[in-house]
């Protein structure tokens, strides 16, 4: 499972890094006279958007981009309880992931298991289409669990948030029907544009990175929506910890 864990860890880091770009410079002085978020300085918008993201009880994060030179897609719904559900596609294969209470469930397609080498082929035959169940607190699962843990994700988001990333506001737009203000910054060949909601809570709605080594689009949605994660049915799982015991 080394390949899948490395991919998911890289994804979690890149998603958090993209979001940090969305926060813009978090320094700043007194608030301007206008109360409209789109009229405020980038520093103020960044500070408010970071606070809003940190306050969310649940959210869905979706990435379609390049990580470590490889195309990757990721979608995960996660909450403060540490439970989550979603899937990641990398190296041509897709793995579904569910963290429910003390257990972690994984289910890969044929291409995913093939990418894991001989161990993956053996697991594929053993599972025969079922979910693999294991303990979430097992040391080998630490990276996987942190990838879908909202608290861990937001902690990564907050890290280094005092840096001045610069940025320039664009004209107001809409993102999936929600009014937003784009903030664009450049770092060498890489251009990052973050879209912050200007109605309701100032959540980061979308981040688009163009150029550079890791272009991609990161979407945030389902803020504070009920996120009830359900474990797969008992008949559809294989508990590998019991086999090992």
Give structural attributes.
245 residues, alpha+beta, outer membrane lipoprotein receptor (LolB), chain A, 13-stranded mixed β-sheet, signal, Lipoprotein
Structure description:
The chain is of the alpha+beta class and 245 residues long. The chain has a single domain (2-221), classed as outer membrane lipoprotein receptor (LolB), chain A (Clam), CATH 2.50.20.20. Helices cover 30% and strands 35% of the residues. It has seven helices and 13 strands. The chain has helices at residues 2-23, 42-55, 110-115, 117-127, 142-147, 150-158, 240-244; strands spanning 58-67, 70-79, 84-90, 93-100, 103-108, 131-135, 168-169, 173-175, 178-187, 190-197, 204-210, 216-221, 237-239. Strands 1, 2, 3, 4, 5, 6, 7, 8, 9, 10, 11, 12 and 13 form a 13-stranded mixed β-sheet that branches. The chain is elongated and about 60 Å long. The chain starts with a helix and ends with a helix. Mean pLDDT is 82; it is low at 1-14, 16-34 and 160-165.
Main beta sheet strand tally, sense and closure: 13 strands, mixed
Number of domains: 1
Given as residue ranges, the uncertain stretches (5+ residues, pLDDT < 50) are 1-14, 16-34, 160-165
CATH second-level architecture: Clam
Gyration radius, rounded? 19 Å
In total, the number of strands is: 13
Keywords: Signal
Protein name: Lipoprotein
Region (Disordered): 163-186
Signal peptide: 1-21
Task: Record the SSE blueprint.
Layout: H1 2-23, H2 42-55, E1 58-67, E2 70-79, E3 84-90, E4 93-100, E5 103-108, H3 110-115, H4 117-127, E6 131-135, H5 142-147, H6 150-158, E7 168-169, E8 173-175, E9 178-187, E10 190-197, E11 204-210, E12 216-221, E13 237-239, H7 240-244
Parallel strand pairs: 6-13
Antiparallel strand pairs: 1-2, 1-12, 2-3, 3-4, 4-5, 5-6, 7-9, 8-9, 9-10, 10-11, 11-12
